[in-house]
Amino acid sequence: MDQGSKRITAAALVIGDEILSGRTQDVNIGTIARFLGRLGIDLCEARCVPDIEDEIVAAVNALRARYTYVFTTGGIGPTHDDITADAIGKAFGLPVEHHPEAMALLAARYAPGEFNERRQRMARVPKGASLIRNSVSVAPGFQVENVFVMAGVPKIMQAMLEDIEPRLTHGVLVKSRFYTVRLPEGRIAAALAEIQQRHAEVTIGSYPFFSQGGPQSGISAGTTLIVRGRNEVEVDAAGAEIETLVRAFGAELEPLK
Amino acid sequence: MDQGSKRITAAALVIGDEILSGRTQDVNIGTIARFLGRLGIDLCEARCVPDIEDEIVAAVNALRARYTYVFTTGGIGPTHDDITADAIGKAFGLPVEHHPEAMALLAARYAPGEFNERRQRMARVPKGASLIRNSVSVAPGFQVENVFVMAGVPKIMQAMLEDIEPRLTHGVLVKSRFYTVRLPEGRIAAALAEIQQRHAEVTIGSYPFFSQGGPQSGISAGTTLIVRGRNEVEVDAAGAEIETLVRAFGAELEPLK
Q1: Count of alpha carbons within 13 Å of B16, Cβ hemisphere only?
Q2: Residues B198, B118 share a domain
Q3: Neighbour-count burial for B143-181, b at 16+ CB within 10 Å, e otherwise
Q4: Which of A154, A246, B113, B222 would you call most buried, defined as having the most Cβ atoms within 10 angstroms of its Cβ?
Q5: What CATH number has the domain bearing residue B220?
Q6: What is the reported pLDDT for A112?
Q7: A160 and A98 in one domain?
Q8: What ipTM does the predicted assembly reach?
Q9: Closest CA to B47 of A197, A226, A26
Q10: Are the beta carbons of B26 and A27 separated by less than 8 Å?
Q11: Is the pLDDT of residue A103 over 60?
């Protein structure tokens, strides 16, 4: 499965009441997932927790013990509800201090007199943390061991991922094949299960889609099939069997939209 | 905080490789959050896990022990990667069986000969589970104790929430006030923290937004402030202080877009 290399794993932790109240739609998990995919790192879990210190601490400690990397988003601004730096400090048992380089970066950005105490809070990081710069906003994120702490604003978070990339151990890339089939998944499910059994090294995902009017019939209009795996020979072999299966049903394979 | 009533809590559990690979953008967490908000139930945590039985079992057991309700999405279709029913059975230590009513519902939907063994799998639920019907697709979800198991397709999941609603204990509604302010949050952060301290019964969220060109300056163009709480008098009192604060800075309150 990993061609002899160690599998590199990750978790995402989205911090913020606004996600759990349904006011803000999270898009950061997907961005992190695709970013990691390009590096051969598996995003294995994602969690959203509220702006409550104990909840953040518990989640960070559970995830950092289990996965190679943890990526958090949110809660590093200047206001009272931005408590991520303190929570990460508590999770690691580290004091939280003003980082001199972050102080300098931020001080240079504000007009004289505008770099107030609250804005200086954005320079607070757990002792020994390294900064995560970003090309969009000057306020940095930070890294403590295997935990990367990023902003919640999507554009800023994306820019932080660029700064993080060179620090990450890359894994073996996952190869994938996508097929769109004009058959309801229930018709091909049995044959698909057999293909999956014959190719245990790959995972075959089956996702129904519905015609314009929605799933009123209860029967999908078609199915997107995704073969994923690190052994390209196996991915291709499973993919070839899917192509044969679909043709046996007299259906067409369509390019994925 | 809860005016004498017990707080009703919930967690969402999104099941599926497609979310963690970044191929599919989850929208179900937000839908569940807003649905629960209208019933006065607090969504306290959300998790995304892959299509791996042990992961689903561990997450379900952690969440159902901790929160009043758990809502899962995904993994209840007819294909080999739909393993949620078995995972829920395992989590509760219950055998998984074909539910007679679900079998009848599904059998009536398919053309003769089309209700194959794989499609019959959609009628499998843990022993004693009650069905969750939906007006969109005939394939049901199911409820075991405080865990509600729903489809991953957003339209179908939404229809299942309608069927679930009468089964839920409602909580005290959270009242909220929204303010949009043309001030960067760093300028009002100190005063805002004081308002939060004076009104511990409410939570004040501060969310920066940026001008069209994005957060290039590193300084937000404005701030959305959200006051939330179950004591309306306190919500209004904190809101009034925010209005006074904003005017003191010579800025305008704008209607929320």
Answers
A1: 27
A2: no
A3: bbeebbbbbbbebbbbbbbebbeeebeebbebbbbebbb
A4: A246
A5: 3.30.70.260
A6: 87
A7: yes
A8: 0.94
A9: A26
A10: no
A11: yes
Q: Are B218 and A153 in contact (CB under 8 A)?
A: no
Name every chain B residue with its beta carbon within 8 A of the beta carbon of A29. 19, 22, 26, 48
CA distance B32 to B152: 12
Residue type, B109: R
Q: Domain end: B136, B167, B198, which one?
A: B167
Answer yes or no: do B41 and B158 share one domain. yes
- The pTM score is 0.95
Residues B161, B182: one domain?
no
> What is the pLDDT, as a whole number, of residue B215?
64
Domain boundary among B147, B167, B187: B167
Cα–Cα dist A153/B175, whole Å: 25
For chains A and B, count residue pairs whose Cβ atoms are closer than 8 Å: 208
Which CATH number is A151's domain given?
3.40.980.10
Do A32 and A121 lie in one domain? The reply is yes
Q: Is the pLDDT of residue B52 over 70?
A: yes
B83–A contact, CB cutoff 8 A: no
Shortest distance, CA A7 to any CA of chain B (angstroms): 15
A37 shares its domain with A60? yes
Domain, as residue range, for A73: 9-167
CB contact under 8 A, B208 and A27: no
Residue B4 inside a domain? The answer is no
pLDDT in tens, A111-124: 989 999 999 999 99
Residue B55 covered by a domain: yes
Q: At A40, is the pLDDT very low, low, confident or very high (cuts 50, 70, 90)?
A: very high
What is the C-alpha to C-alpha distance for residues A151 and A139, in angstroms, rounded to an integer?
A: 9
Average per-residue pLDDT in chain A?
Answer: 93
Of B22, B30, B50, the CB nearest to A37: B22
In the predicted model, is pLDDT for residue B191 greater than 60? yes
- Tell me which of A37-46, A129-138, B219-228 is least confident: B219-228
pLDDT, tens digit, 9 for 90 and up, residues B130-153: 999 998 888 999 999 999 999 999
Q: Where does residue A191 fall: left (phi above 0), alpha (psi -120 to 50 degrees), or beta otherwise?
A: alpha
For position A197, what pLDDT does the model report? 98
Note whether residue B26 is domain-resident. yes
Report pLDDT for A251: 79
DSSP code, position B112: T
Is A19 close to B46, i.e. CB distance below 8 A? yes
Same domain, yes or no: A127 and A235 = no
Considering its fold, how many domains does chain A have in total?
2
Highest mean pLDDT among A178-187, B157-166, B206-215: B157-166
Q: Are residues A161 and A212 in the same domain?
A: no
Q: Which residue of B has its CA nearest to A223?
A: B79
Predicted confidence at residue A67, as pLDDT, reads 98
CB contact under 8 A, B189 and A47: no
Sheet holding A222-229, edge to edge: A203-209, A222-229, A175-181, A253-254
Residue B3 located in a structural domain: no
